[in-house]
Amino acid sequence: MIKNLWFLRGLRKGIRTEKFPEENPVEIALWSTELIGEGNVECPVDAIVDGQWNFEKCIFCRKCTPSFAPKGNINIFRVRNNEPAFRKSFHLFPFDSGACGACNAELHNIASPQYDMTRFGIFFTNTPRHADAIVIMGVWTQGMKKALDLALDAMPGPKLVIALGSCASTGGIMGKGALENEKYDVIIGGCPPNPYTILSALEKARGD
Ligand code: SF4
Ligand code: SF4
Predict the structure, then answer these.
(1) Cβ proximity of 166 and 191 under 8 Å
(2) pTM, entire model
(3) Residue 71: CB within 6 Å of ligand 1?
(4) Selecting from 3.40.50.12280, 1.20.1250.20, 3.30.160.100, 3.40.50.300, what CATH number does the domain 77-205 have?
(5) Ligand 2: which atom is nearest the Cα of residue 60?
(6) Looking at the predicted structure, is the pLDDT value of residue 90 above 60?
């Protein structure tokens, strides 16, 4: 029954791919954007120190509200190294080192008709041998260490290593980052990151 309702809704609305980034995002999840505020507040992951907010650590628990609040800036990412060779086609190999599933879901979302990553020339690949970038989600876990090392070794150069979400970059609230922070070429903030942030970061990762 529910499936039928979704089907009818789809027929009524049609498939609408957003015009982002030429136009503003249609439906942004505010609580996955930059937090702005002041003062030292209690933060379970020390994402606010001396009044400075650190997107790599924030898990968006909202404990700092109302001193800090989201204002809608989706550009919460860091690009240490970009690779213009990937401007025309950019193949991503998703890797779950110990994620809760939400980063995975948001990464999957960028392939949906609403965001349609293929219009940017971005694709998923299921083998690191065909990957331009590995997108790592989740904290460091012993069980996935060997698989991660093998995947990184199997990728041809040039290549980019991307952290998606606070777990992969800093360990979030659960542990330590999947790799040492300085090993990432790109760090995408959020817990989980929203699709607009992911697409914007991927664009910058190839020098656009
Ligand atoms: S939302 Fe939570 S994790 Fe993020 S800065 Fe505020 S208190 Fe820290
Ligand atoms: S960063 Fe947040 S959403 Fe992503 S895996 Fe960690 S806990 Fe889950």
Answers:
(1) yes
(2) 0.93
(3) no
(4) 3.40.50.12280
(5) 2
(6) yes
